[in-house]
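Model it.
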Amino acid sequence: MKNLAMLFCATLFLTSCSSSQNKNKNDKEINIKGYSATITSAELKDMLYTYASDDYEGRRTGEPGQKKAIEFIKNNYESNNIPSPIAEGDYFQEIPASYFGSGINDSENVVAYIKGSEKPEEVIIISAHLDHIGVSKNGDINNGADDDGSGTVAILEIAEAFKAAEKDGNGPKRTIVFLHVTGEEIGLYGSRYYADEDPIFPLKNTVANLNIDMIGRIDPKHEASGKNYLYLIGADKLSKELHNISEEVNKKYFNLEFDYTYNDDNDPNRFYYRSDHYNFAKNNIPVIFYFNGTHADYHRPSDTPDKINYDFLETRAKLIFHTAWELANREERIKLD
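Modeled.
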């Protein structure tokens, strides 16, 4: 009975917190679903067919295709009037060639943000890597539609949803940073540069990192069920509160299947250490890594936009938006265990 009572209290706590986050400073109800409805499969598809096209030559770090990619991302932020925290009109955090391994040219992270209305010094970072593996030796282009075109366009749509809220006077209480990192495929360089060399926002003020790396496909394990799902990695490693909020948001709005297989400390794939969230986690910043699992087209030229499940991608992006909303608007910053 004691355990049941504790569970009831925890649920009541999360529900009451959730309801308080859905009101603006004038105590008027905020239509969060209305803002997340701006995230659409049609817009995701339109962007991804461009971003993962042959014109971008597989977006290899430092190469011409990657330079096209950062311009694409920048243009999206400019068209939505979402500014850069670096300087007006300057969205690129430049990383010199000397920071990379031999043979890699200079490259760039892309950074945009929406300033918090009440606690602007506290920051939620939503990240995805903008690069891929480029062109194979036989000339085949590795388009990287899922890896990580899906995460890139998801962030652009999430940013648009937050901007719609801000336009209505319902901007997030905490600052939301949209961080597109380079060099992930060659060793998590872009996120490491941000975290270790040039954190645009102090790491001590960074509340959480929500990292998106491959959320557009279905892996063999989940094909038969037909149910939308995501692998979540890292949510409970540094903050059980983050894990609980994540679960509550999902149950309240979406009821996706959350698969924690790869969250096991003994998972041989070691995905917890293999994407950009790790460079935040190693600095004691709570993280969630959103992932659809691997598939036959992983790191192959056949990872193309026509293989993406855009309805699933839309719902997954909406889930991440709602989770970021909760983190940005709750009264207290989430606690480290």
